[in-house]
Specification:
The protein is of the alpha/beta class. The protein folds into two domains: 94 residues, no CATH class; 89 residues. It contains eight helices and five strands; from the N terminus they run ααααββαβαβαβα. Strands 3-4-5 form a three-stranded parallel sheet. Strand 4, helix 7 and strand 5 form a beta-alpha-beta unit. The longest helix has 29 residues. The radius of gyration is 22 Å and the shape is flat. The two termini are 17 Å apart. The relative contact order is 0.08.
Length: 226
């Protein structure tokens, strides 16, 4: 856990300093458009100060990884990281999914763009590698999933030249987390299905299948106190 605290501290310190010193370029790098108002710059710098504070807290907690306070700090940081990734991903998808069409105003004939009620990208199944190409423009060297909706993304990743990593998480621990399949005789589910065919393809093509039951000693932080 000391290493995790250290890595987290370095990441948050770097992100905080970037937002404090260069808020507009940093946001442009993340979201594709710079900040253009004084209010937005101020909010970005406040967020940078918050990240800087979290980074400092993680740095000083790295030598006290067994205390409840240190575990609580780590849990809070993981919650923040997940929320930040979800917000940034949602923002990127909302921008990329705006389908617009060119037309002329009926009243005065001026050219206009109209946002259409259409989905440009469905981030599931084949839409995942399509979205990666749209947003990143490169074949990934590593991809991770946990259902049939990730199959094409993992296939696309593994088909590249050189070293490539495709990994699936199999949720098979009903006591500590969840168990669903129907791969390996696990209960069926209509959402996030992990089929036996997907499991067999992973084993045949050299993907890593990570078992929550057999490969995770600890899943949730509260288990450390048992």
């Amino acid at each position: 856990m000391k290493t995790l605290h250290t890595v987290t501290a370095v990441i948050e310190l770097g992100a905080g300093l970037a937002l404090l010193c260069f808020p507009s370029p940093t946001v442009a790098l993340l979201l594709g458009s710079p900040l253009d108002t004084p209010t937005a710059l101020t909010v970005a710098r406040v967020g940078g100060a918050g990240l800087l504070s979290l980074g400092v807290a993680c740095w000083f907690a790295r030598g006290d990884s067994q205390s409840r306070a240190a575990r609580g700090l780590l849990g809070a940081m993981l919650l923040y990281d997940v929320a930040a990734v979800a917000i940034l991903a949602g923002q990127m998808l909302s921008v990329s999914n705006n389908v617009v069409s060119f037309s002329r105003n009926d009243k005065d004939g001026k050219p206009i763009l109209t946002k259409e009620p259409k989905l440009l990208l469905n981030d599931n199944d084949a839409g995942k590698p399509e979205g990666i190409q749209l947003m990143i423009g490169r074949r990934p060297h590593a991809a991770f999933g946990n259902s049939i909706g990730d199959q094409q993304m993992l296939e696309y990743t593994k088909a590249g030249d050189g070293a490539r990593l495709s990994m699936l998480v199999l949720h098979d621990d009903a006591e500590r987390e969840y168990a669903y399949g129907p791969a390996q005789g696990l209960p069926k589910t209509k959402v996030g299905t992990f089929t036996q065919a997907l499991y067999d393809e992973a084993k045949k093509d050299g993907w890593f299948v990570i078992s929550m039951k057999n490969d995770w000693k600890v899943i949730f932080p509260f288990e450390l106190g048992k």
